[in-house]
Every structure is written in C-alpha cells, then in structure tokens.
Amino acid sequence: NAGVTQTPKFRVLKTGQSMTLLCAQDMNHEYMYWYRQDPGMGLRLIHYSVGEGTTAKGEVPDGYNVSRLKKQNFLLGLESAAPSQTSVYFCASSTLTDTQYFGPGTRLTVL
Amino acid sequence: GNSVTQMEGPVTLSEEAFLTINCTYTATGYPSLFWYVQYPGEGLQLLLKATKADDKGSNKGFEATYRKETTSFHLEKGSVQVSDSAVYFCALLTGNQFYFGTGTSLTVIP
CA of B48 to nearest chain A CA: how many angstroms apart? Predict the structure, then answer.
C-alpha cells in the first residue's frame, strides 16, 4: 500500500516547455486534487476531480490542464511553462467526507 | 466565502514549552476542521481532525477543539519537543473542497 505517489520528484524546465506530472493513489479514493505551495501562501488548489472522467477548476487553474482517465491516476499538465509556475506541487486524494492524503511533492523550477 | 486564517509565524519555543497556534475560519454550512503537519521535504500529514461542534481532536499530545461560537480551532500542546519542529496547517472541508491556511512554522530549540 504505497498511498499517494508523485512522479517526478524534481524537474527543471525552460520557459515555454511542456511537461506532465503524474499522481497515483492505491486507496480507491474518488476525489483527487492538485495543489501548489508557494512561500507565504500556503496551499492553493489548482484543479480537482470528483471521479474518473471528471475534473473541475480550483482557485488557480490558469496555465494548467488535468485529466483523470483512470480512477487511480490524476495528471497535471503544463502546456507552456512560465517562471511564475516555479513551485512545489502536491497531489492529494480523499473520500468525500474524510482526510486528504498527500503525496511527497514535486519541486518544479522554470527558468 | 470559505477561508481559514491562522497565526503567522515563525514561532520559536524552547523544549517543554506550551504551544498554541490560533486558527479561525469562515465557512458556509457545517465544515469539518483539520490540522495538518508538514516536516521538511515532505508532504502534509494529518495531525488531527474534528467533524462537528465541540468535538476535540487529539493526536501525539496535540489537541484542538471545534468552537462554533468563536469559529475557531486552535492547536495546543502542553510540552513541545524538538521533533515537533515543522509547519502546521489548519484546514476546513466543506462541500467537496478543502481550504488551507497559510501555515505556521514552528521551531523548537533544546
């Protein structure tokens, strides 16, 4: 039982490059979330999903896209990376009324 | 709207000191309340939670009581240890979204 895993752990991109962050959970949770964490700003919700095939925008969705083709996976895409997207990205999963379980994070730097 | 406000840090305490980290919230309906802890280089982990008014969550010597009348969920510990050094996040769950505070950094010195 690995919980929530994220790949990659670290990545450096140049402005304009694209990439996909992968989140996987083995707890059969319906809900999955992508957050970014920036100094002094706590966690901000980017996108979330309430089930396979569904996604919704969070607080800061611009510049990101997501997909939930399988229940256990939630992908976060950056089509054209910008320096403002330098951050630590966390994935989480949960049932509706219970605790969120977080992955270890992906540290992304955009030059 | 929904939001969480927690005291700003950083907080520095000596070992065995008493800890309080304040958290207040604004929410529609009847949210569940959480405290999460983040150790350096790691993701957030659940510390404790409370799902209704007057509930007390507790874990590892930490406690917090859901106070509806003051819309608060303050975190307390009677005697902190060096190993408690981390960032603490207050959060609420309402509907299908979590809302997090900005985090309070705690450093405990021997």
Answer: 9
